[in-house]
Amino acid sequence: MNSRERVWTALSHQEGDRVPVDFGAMPSTGIMAMAYGELRRYLGCTTGRIRVYDLGQQLAEPEPEILERFGVDVVDLRNTAILPDNRKWIPWTLPDGQEAERPADVLIEPDGDGGHIIKDSSGQAIARMPRGSFYFDGLQPALGEPPKPLEEYTFSILEDDYLEMLQSRAQWFRKNTEYAVMVGFGGSILELCQGRRGWGNFMMDLAADPAFAEALMDKALESHLRNLERFLEAVGDTVDVIQMGDDLGTQQGPQLSPEMYHELIYPRHKQVYQYVHAQSKAAVFLHSCGGIRPLLPDLIDAGVQALNPVQTSAVGMEPAELKEQHGDRLTFWGGGCDTQTVLPLGTPEQIDAHVRERISVFAPGGGFVFCQVHNIQAKIPPRNVVAMFEAAAKYRDYPDGWKRDDSRT
Protein backbone atom coordinates (compact mmCIF):
# COMPACT_ATOMS: atom_id res chain seq x y z
CA MET A 1 0.00 0.00 0.00
CA ASN A 2 1.50 3.34 -0.98
CA SER A 3 1.07 6.60 0.91
CA ARG A 4 -1.82 7.92 -1.15
CA GLU A 5 -3.72 4.66 -0.75
CA ARG A 6 -2.95 4.61 2.98
CA VAL A 7 -4.41 8.08 3.52
CA TRP A 8 -7.53 7.33 1.50
CA THR A 9 -8.02 4.11 3.42
CA ALA A 10 -7.97 6.11 6.66
CA LEU A 11 -10.39 8.67 5.22
CA SER A 12 -12.68 5.77 4.23
CA HIS A 13 -12.69 4.50 7.85
CA GLN A 14 -10.89 1.30 7.04
CA GLU A 15 -7.72 -0.21 8.44
CA GLY A 16 -4.86 -0.26 5.98
CA ASP A 17 -1.39 -1.66 6.52
CA ARG A 18 -0.35 1.23 8.80
CA VAL A 19 -1.69 4.43 10.29
CA PRO A 20 -0.78 7.30 7.94
CA VAL A 21 1.60 9.99 9.24
CA ASP A 22 1.58 13.73 8.53
CA PHE A 23 4.39 16.18 9.22
CA GLY A 24 3.95 19.63 7.71
CA ALA A 25 1.24 19.03 5.11
CA MET A 26 -0.46 22.22 6.29
CA PRO A 27 0.44 25.12 8.60
CA SER A 28 -0.77 23.45 11.79
CA THR A 29 0.89 20.04 11.50
CA GLY A 30 4.45 21.23 11.09
CA ILE A 31 7.36 22.70 12.99
CA MET A 32 8.73 26.14 13.81
CA ALA A 33 11.90 26.99 11.96
CA MET A 34 13.95 27.32 15.14
CA ALA A 35 12.94 23.82 16.25
CA TYR A 36 13.49 22.53 12.72
CA GLY A 37 17.05 23.81 12.67
CA GLU A 38 17.75 22.07 15.98
CA LEU A 39 16.14 18.89 14.65
CA ARG A 40 18.29 18.95 11.51
CA ARG A 41 21.43 19.25 13.60
CA TYR A 42 20.28 16.47 15.94
CA LEU A 43 19.69 14.16 12.97
CA GLY A 44 23.05 15.04 11.42
CA CYS A 45 21.66 16.70 8.29
CA THR A 46 24.55 18.40 6.49
CA THR A 47 22.82 19.55 3.30
CA GLY A 48 19.68 21.52 2.57
CA ARG A 49 18.40 24.64 4.26
CA ILE A 50 15.80 26.10 6.62
CA ARG A 51 13.08 27.82 4.64
CA VAL A 52 10.46 29.81 6.54
CA TYR A 53 7.37 29.52 4.34
CA ASP A 54 4.86 30.74 6.97
CA LEU A 55 6.18 33.98 8.42
CA GLY A 56 3.42 34.52 10.96
CA GLN A 57 4.01 31.21 12.69
CA GLN A 58 7.66 31.01 11.57
CA LEU A 59 7.21 27.51 10.13
CA ALA A 60 9.81 25.61 8.13
CA GLU A 61 9.28 23.46 5.06
CA PRO A 62 10.12 19.83 5.93
CA GLU A 63 12.68 18.45 3.49
CA PRO A 64 12.41 15.08 1.69
CA GLU A 65 15.20 13.53 3.78
CA ILE A 66 13.28 14.18 6.98
CA LEU A 67 9.89 13.23 5.52
CA GLU A 68 11.37 9.88 4.54
CA ARG A 69 13.08 9.45 7.91
CA PHE A 70 9.74 9.85 9.72
CA GLY A 71 7.67 7.76 7.29
CA VAL A 72 5.44 10.66 6.24
CA ASP A 73 2.54 9.91 3.88
CA VAL A 74 1.03 13.31 3.02
CA VAL A 75 2.62 16.54 1.86
CA ASP A 76 1.77 20.15 1.13
CA LEU A 77 1.32 20.91 -2.56
CA ARG A 78 3.31 24.12 -2.05
CA ASN A 79 6.36 22.47 -0.43
CA THR A 80 9.25 23.82 -2.51
CA ALA A 81 11.74 21.57 -0.73
CA ILE A 82 10.16 18.72 -2.72
CA LEU A 83 9.35 20.56 -5.93
CA PRO A 84 10.99 23.97 -6.40
CA ASP A 85 9.02 26.79 -8.01
CA ASN A 86 9.94 30.25 -9.22
CA ARG A 87 9.42 31.93 -5.85
CA LYS A 88 12.50 33.85 -4.75
CA TRP A 89 14.01 33.37 -1.29
CA ILE A 90 16.31 35.71 0.63
CA PRO A 91 18.30 35.37 3.87
CA TRP A 92 16.43 35.63 7.16
CA THR A 93 17.84 35.40 10.68
CA LEU A 94 15.64 33.50 13.12
CA PRO A 95 15.02 34.95 16.59
CA ASP A 96 17.58 32.54 18.07
CA GLY A 97 20.26 33.56 15.54
CA GLN A 98 20.00 30.59 13.18
CA GLU A 99 20.35 31.50 9.52
CA ALA A 100 17.42 30.67 7.27
CA GLU A 101 15.60 31.88 4.16
CA ARG A 102 12.25 33.57 3.70
CA PRO A 103 10.12 34.58 0.69
CA ALA A 104 11.48 37.67 -1.02
CA ASP A 105 8.03 38.93 -2.00
CA VAL A 106 7.07 39.79 1.60
CA LEU A 107 7.98 43.32 2.69
CA ILE A 108 9.56 43.23 6.15
CA GLU A 109 11.05 46.27 7.86
CA PRO A 110 12.51 47.05 11.31
CA ASP A 111 9.90 48.50 13.65
CA GLY A 112 12.38 50.88 15.31
CA ASP A 113 12.25 49.04 18.63
CA GLY A 114 14.25 45.91 17.91
CA GLY A 115 11.39 44.05 16.20
CA HIS A 116 9.99 43.79 12.68
CA ILE A 117 6.79 44.65 10.82
CA ILE A 118 5.25 43.20 7.67
CA LYS A 119 3.65 45.64 5.25
CA ASP A 120 1.20 45.00 2.45
CA SER A 121 1.57 46.29 -1.11
CA SER A 122 0.08 49.65 -0.11
CA GLY A 123 2.65 50.11 2.64
CA GLN A 124 0.27 49.50 5.52
CA ALA A 125 1.60 47.49 8.47
CA ILE A 126 -0.35 44.23 8.78
CA ALA A 127 1.75 42.20 11.24
CA ARG A 128 4.43 42.78 13.86
CA MET A 129 7.08 40.68 15.56
CA PRO A 130 8.01 42.60 18.72
CA ARG A 131 11.53 42.42 20.09
CA GLY A 132 11.99 39.12 21.86
CA SER A 133 8.99 37.48 20.17
CA PHE A 134 9.10 34.33 18.06
CA TYR A 135 6.07 35.15 15.87
CA PHE A 136 4.47 37.84 13.74
CA ASP A 137 1.11 38.88 15.21
CA GLY A 138 -1.56 40.24 12.89
CA LEU A 139 -2.57 43.87 13.44
CA GLN A 140 -6.36 44.15 13.67
CA PRO A 141 -8.76 47.10 14.01
CA ALA A 142 -9.06 48.54 17.50
CA LEU A 143 -11.80 47.24 19.77
CA GLY A 144 -14.87 49.43 19.45
CA GLU A 145 -14.17 50.55 15.87
CA PRO A 146 -17.55 50.93 14.15
CA PRO A 147 -18.32 49.03 10.95
CA LYS A 148 -17.42 50.59 7.65
CA PRO A 149 -19.96 50.61 4.82
CA LEU A 150 -20.34 47.06 3.61
CA GLU A 151 -18.97 47.84 0.13
CA GLU A 152 -15.63 48.82 1.65
CA TYR A 153 -15.01 45.27 2.85
CA THR A 154 -13.31 43.42 0.02
CA PHE A 155 -12.10 39.85 -0.36
CA SER A 156 -9.36 38.67 -2.66
CA ILE A 157 -9.82 36.85 -5.95
CA LEU A 158 -7.39 34.09 -6.89
CA GLU A 159 -5.15 35.08 -9.78
CA ASP A 160 -4.78 33.01 -12.94
CA ASP A 161 -1.01 32.64 -12.53
CA TYR A 162 -1.46 31.21 -9.04
CA LEU A 163 -4.06 28.69 -10.18
CA GLU A 164 -1.94 27.64 -13.15
CA MET A 165 0.99 27.10 -10.81
CA LEU A 166 -1.13 24.94 -8.48
CA GLN A 167 -2.44 22.92 -11.40
CA SER A 168 1.04 22.25 -12.74
CA ARG A 169 2.37 21.24 -9.34
CA ALA A 170 -0.60 18.98 -8.61
CA GLN A 171 -0.12 17.15 -11.89
CA TRP A 172 3.60 16.72 -11.16
CA PHE A 173 2.96 15.31 -7.67
CA ARG A 174 0.33 12.91 -9.01
CA LYS A 175 2.64 11.67 -11.75
CA ASN A 176 5.97 11.56 -9.91
CA THR A 177 5.20 10.70 -6.28
CA GLU A 178 3.06 8.34 -4.24
CA TYR A 179 2.36 10.93 -1.54
CA ALA A 180 -1.15 11.97 -0.69
CA VAL A 181 -1.26 15.70 -1.48
CA MET A 182 -3.00 18.42 0.52
CA VAL A 183 -3.65 21.92 -0.72
CA GLY A 184 -4.85 24.83 1.38
CA PHE A 185 -7.94 26.79 0.36
CA GLY A 186 -9.05 28.29 3.67
CA GLY A 187 -12.72 28.99 3.22
CA SER A 188 -13.19 30.50 6.68
CA ILE A 189 -16.33 32.39 7.57
CA LEU A 190 -16.03 33.34 11.24
CA GLU A 191 -12.25 33.77 11.27
CA LEU A 192 -12.13 35.78 8.05
CA CYS A 193 -14.75 38.23 9.26
CA GLN A 194 -13.04 38.49 12.64
CA GLY A 195 -9.89 39.45 10.78
CA ARG A 196 -11.66 42.16 8.78
CA ARG A 197 -13.48 43.69 11.75
CA GLY A 198 -11.22 42.68 14.62
CA TRP A 199 -11.96 39.67 16.78
CA GLY A 200 -13.85 41.47 19.53
CA ASN A 201 -15.70 43.76 17.14
CA PHE A 202 -17.09 40.91 15.09
CA MET A 203 -18.12 38.92 18.14
CA MET A 204 -20.13 41.96 19.22
CA ASP A 205 -21.54 42.28 15.69
CA LEU A 206 -22.86 38.73 15.89
CA ALA A 207 -24.69 39.49 19.11
CA ALA A 208 -25.74 43.11 18.66
CA ASP A 209 -25.93 43.64 14.89
CA PRO A 210 -26.60 40.25 13.31
CA ALA A 211 -27.92 41.82 10.10
CA PHE A 212 -24.55 43.46 9.42
CA ALA A 213 -22.67 40.32 10.52
CA GLU A 214 -24.67 38.16 8.16
CA ALA A 215 -24.21 40.57 5.28
CA LEU A 216 -20.45 40.56 5.82
CA MET A 217 -20.40 36.76 6.05
CA ASP A 218 -22.41 36.55 2.84
CA LYS A 219 -19.79 38.66 1.08
CA ALA A 220 -17.11 36.28 2.34
CA LEU A 221 -19.15 33.29 1.21
CA GLU A 222 -19.71 34.76 -2.23
CA SER A 223 -15.97 35.30 -2.59
CA HIS A 224 -15.20 31.74 -1.45
CA LEU A 225 -17.61 30.16 -3.90
CA ARG A 226 -16.31 32.27 -6.78
CA ASN A 227 -12.73 31.33 -5.93
CA LEU A 228 -13.59 27.71 -5.22
CA GLU A 229 -15.08 27.18 -8.67
CA ARG A 230 -11.81 28.09 -10.36
CA PHE A 231 -9.68 26.46 -7.64
CA LEU A 232 -11.39 23.10 -8.15
CA GLU A 233 -11.14 23.38 -11.92
CA ALA A 234 -7.38 23.63 -11.41
CA VAL A 235 -6.72 20.94 -8.79
CA GLY A 236 -9.97 19.25 -7.76
CA ASP A 237 -9.22 15.93 -9.46
CA THR A 238 -5.46 15.81 -8.83
CA VAL A 239 -5.12 16.53 -5.11
CA ASP A 240 -6.36 14.29 -2.32
CA VAL A 241 -7.26 16.70 0.48
CA ILE A 242 -8.47 20.29 0.42
CA GLN A 243 -7.67 22.09 3.65
CA MET A 244 -10.27 24.44 5.06
CA GLY A 245 -9.76 26.45 8.22
CA ASP A 246 -11.98 28.29 10.67
CA ASP A 247 -10.97 28.44 14.33
CA LEU A 248 -14.23 27.95 16.21
CA GLY A 249 -13.01 27.03 19.67
CA THR A 250 -11.10 28.07 22.75
CA GLN A 251 -9.43 26.00 25.44
CA GLN A 252 -12.71 26.05 27.36
CA GLY A 253 -15.16 25.30 24.54
CA PRO A 254 -16.65 26.85 21.38
CA GLN A 255 -16.33 30.58 20.74
CA LEU A 256 -20.05 30.62 19.95
CA SER A 257 -22.95 28.77 21.43
CA PRO A 258 -23.93 25.72 19.37
CA GLU A 259 -27.23 27.49 18.64
CA MET A 260 -25.51 30.60 17.26
CA TYR A 261 -23.10 28.49 15.25
CA HIS A 262 -25.99 26.47 13.78
CA GLU A 263 -27.97 29.56 12.85
CA LEU A 264 -25.23 31.84 11.53
CA ILE A 265 -22.09 29.93 10.52
CA TYR A 266 -23.15 26.38 9.72
CA PRO A 267 -25.30 27.21 6.64
CA ARG A 268 -22.39 29.06 5.06
CA HIS A 269 -19.85 26.37 5.95
CA LYS A 270 -22.18 23.82 4.38
CA GLN A 271 -22.33 25.68 1.08
CA VAL A 272 -18.53 25.78 0.88
CA TYR A 273 -17.88 22.18 1.89
CA GLN A 274 -20.69 20.67 -0.17
CA TYR A 275 -19.48 22.56 -3.22
CA VAL A 276 -16.16 20.72 -2.88
CA HIS A 277 -17.97 17.38 -2.70
CA ALA A 278 -20.12 18.21 -5.72
CA GLN A 279 -17.27 19.42 -7.92
CA SER A 280 -14.23 17.32 -6.98
CA LYS A 281 -12.93 14.00 -5.71
CA ALA A 282 -10.95 15.57 -2.86
CA ALA A 283 -11.66 15.13 0.84
CA VAL A 284 -12.65 18.11 2.99
CA PHE A 285 -10.26 18.73 5.89
CA LEU A 286 -11.10 21.31 8.54
CA HIS A 287 -8.58 22.91 10.86
CA SER A 288 -10.32 24.27 13.94
CA CYS A 289 -8.59 24.64 17.28
CA GLY A 290 -10.20 24.35 20.68
CA GLY A 291 -13.00 22.52 22.40
CA ILE A 292 -15.43 22.23 19.51
CA ARG A 293 -17.06 18.90 20.34
CA PRO A 294 -20.57 20.43 20.64
CA LEU A 295 -20.23 21.65 17.05
CA LEU A 296 -19.10 18.35 15.53
CA PRO A 297 -22.55 17.05 14.49
CA ASP A 298 -23.14 20.21 12.44
CA LEU A 299 -19.62 20.16 10.99
CA ILE A 300 -19.99 16.53 9.92
CA ASP A 301 -23.38 17.29 8.37
CA ALA A 302 -21.85 20.28 6.58
CA GLY A 303 -19.36 17.96 4.88
CA VAL A 304 -16.22 17.86 7.01
CA GLN A 305 -14.45 14.51 6.64
CA ALA A 306 -11.23 15.14 8.57
CA LEU A 307 -10.75 17.22 11.72
CA ASN A 308 -7.51 18.84 12.81
CA PRO A 309 -5.76 19.47 15.21
CA VAL A 310 -7.94 17.43 17.61
CA GLN A 311 -6.95 19.59 20.58
CA THR A 312 -7.26 16.88 23.19
CA SER A 313 -6.31 19.15 26.09
CA ALA A 314 -9.35 21.39 25.49
CA VAL A 315 -12.61 20.92 27.34
CA GLY A 316 -14.73 18.14 25.87
CA MET A 317 -12.03 16.77 23.54
CA GLU A 318 -11.28 13.50 25.35
CA PRO A 319 -9.91 11.06 22.73
CA ALA A 320 -11.95 7.98 23.69
CA GLU A 321 -15.23 9.88 23.73
CA LEU A 322 -14.48 11.58 20.41
CA LYS A 323 -13.70 8.24 18.80
CA GLU A 324 -16.75 6.53 20.24
CA GLN A 325 -19.19 9.28 19.28
CA HIS A 326 -17.86 10.41 15.91
CA GLY A 327 -15.22 7.95 14.76
CA ASP A 328 -17.50 6.30 12.20
CA ARG A 329 -17.95 9.54 10.24
CA LEU A 330 -14.98 11.75 11.11
CA THR A 331 -11.29 11.11 10.51
CA PHE A 332 -9.18 12.46 13.35
CA TRP A 333 -6.17 14.11 11.73
CA GLY A 334 -4.11 14.88 14.80
CA GLY A 335 -4.35 14.31 18.51
CA GLY A 336 -1.41 11.91 18.30
CA CYS A 337 0.76 13.73 20.85
CA ASP A 338 -0.13 16.60 23.16
CA THR A 339 1.97 19.65 22.29
CA GLN A 340 1.13 21.71 25.38
CA THR A 341 2.62 19.42 28.02
CA VAL A 342 3.80 16.00 26.86
CA LEU A 343 5.95 16.87 23.85
CA PRO A 344 7.78 19.83 25.45
CA LEU A 345 8.08 18.45 28.98
CA GLY A 346 7.99 14.65 28.75
CA THR A 347 10.86 12.20 28.60
CA PRO A 348 11.28 10.06 25.48
CA GLU A 349 9.88 7.13 27.47
CA GLN A 350 6.81 9.13 28.49
CA ILE A 351 6.30 10.28 24.92
CA ASP A 352 6.50 6.69 23.69
CA ALA A 353 3.80 5.59 26.14
CA HIS A 354 1.63 8.61 25.33
CA VAL A 355 1.81 8.06 21.56
CA ARG A 356 1.08 4.38 22.02
CA GLU A 357 -2.03 5.17 24.06
CA ARG A 358 -3.28 7.73 21.52
CA ILE A 359 -2.84 5.33 18.60
CA SER A 360 -4.63 2.60 20.55
CA VAL A 361 -7.64 4.93 20.91
CA PHE A 362 -7.80 6.59 17.50
CA ALA A 363 -6.51 3.88 15.14
CA PRO A 364 -9.01 0.98 15.44
CA GLY A 365 -11.34 0.87 12.45
CA GLY A 366 -9.35 3.47 10.54
CA GLY A 367 -10.28 7.13 10.54
CA PHE A 368 -6.96 8.35 11.97
CA VAL A 369 -3.95 10.16 10.56
CA PHE A 370 -1.12 10.56 13.04
CA CYS A 371 0.39 13.92 13.81
CA GLN A 372 0.95 15.97 16.93
CA VAL A 373 -1.86 18.22 18.14
CA HIS A 374 -0.42 21.42 16.65
CA ASN A 375 2.88 22.78 15.35
CA ILE A 376 6.08 21.74 17.12
CA GLN A 377 7.17 24.90 18.89
CA ALA A 378 10.57 26.48 19.41
CA LYS A 379 12.69 25.08 22.24
CA ILE A 380 11.03 21.64 22.17
CA PRO A 381 13.99 19.23 22.52
CA PRO A 382 14.76 17.54 19.21
CA ARG A 383 15.14 14.21 21.00
CA ASN A 384 11.48 14.50 21.98
CA VAL A 385 10.45 15.14 18.37
CA VAL A 386 12.39 12.08 17.27
CA ALA A 387 10.91 10.04 20.13
CA MET A 388 7.41 10.98 18.98
CA PHE A 389 7.94 9.89 15.40
CA GLU A 390 9.83 6.76 16.45
CA ALA A 391 6.90 5.82 18.67
CA ALA A 392 4.48 6.41 15.80
CA ALA A 393 6.59 4.13 13.61
CA LYS A 394 6.71 1.51 16.34
CA TYR A 395 2.97 1.33 16.97
CA ARG A 396 1.35 2.33 13.67
CA ASP A 397 1.03 -1.13 12.11
CA TYR A 398 -2.37 -2.74 11.69
CA PRO A 399 -3.62 -4.90 13.24
CA ASP A 400 -2.98 -3.89 16.84
CA GLY A 401 0.44 -2.34 16.35
CA TRP A 402 0.04 -0.49 19.63
CA LYS A 403 0.11 -3.80 21.52
CA ARG A 404 3.71 -4.43 20.51
CA ASP A 405 6.51 -4.09 23.02
CA ASP A 406 9.41 -4.69 20.65
CA SER A 407 11.24 -1.97 18.79
CA ARG A 408 10.89 -1.66 15.03
CA THR A 409 13.80 -3.00 13.09
Shape: globular
Give me the strand/helix succession: HHEEHEEEEEEEHEHHHEEEHEHEHEHHEH
Largest sheet: 7 strands, parallel
**CATH fold node name:** TIM Barrel
Q: What is the residue-averaged pLDDT? A: 96
Q: By helix and strand content, what is the structural category? A: alpha/beta
Number of helices: 13
How many distinct beta strands? 17
Task: Specify the CATH architecture.
Answer: Alpha-Beta Barrel
Domain count: the total is 1
> Class in CATH?
Alpha Beta
- Tell me the fraction of residues in β-strands, as a range: 15-25%
Numbering strands along the chain, what is their spatial order in the largest sheet?
3-10-11-14-15-16-17
Radius of gyration: 21 Å
Would you summarize the structure shown here?
It contains 13 helices and 17 strands. The chain is an alpha/beta fold and 409 residues long.
How does the SSE layout of this entry go?
Elements: H1 3-11, H2 33-43, E1 52-54, E2 59-60, H3 64-69, E3 74-76, E4 89-93, E5 99-103, E6 107-110, E7 116-119, E8 125-129, E9 137-138, H4 160-176, E10 180-186, H5 190-197, H6 199-208, H7 210-235, E11 241-245, E12 249-250, E13 253-254, H8 258-279, E14 283-287, H9 296-302, E15 306-308, H10 319-326, E16 331-333, H11 342-345, H12 348-362, E17 368-369, H13 382-395
Parallel strand pairs: 3-10, 10-11, 11-14, 14-15, 15-16, 16-17
Antiparallel strand pairs: 1-2, 4-5, 6-7, 7-8, 8-9, 12-13
Helix pairs in contact: 2-13, 4-7, 5-6, 6-7, 7-8, 8-9, 12-13
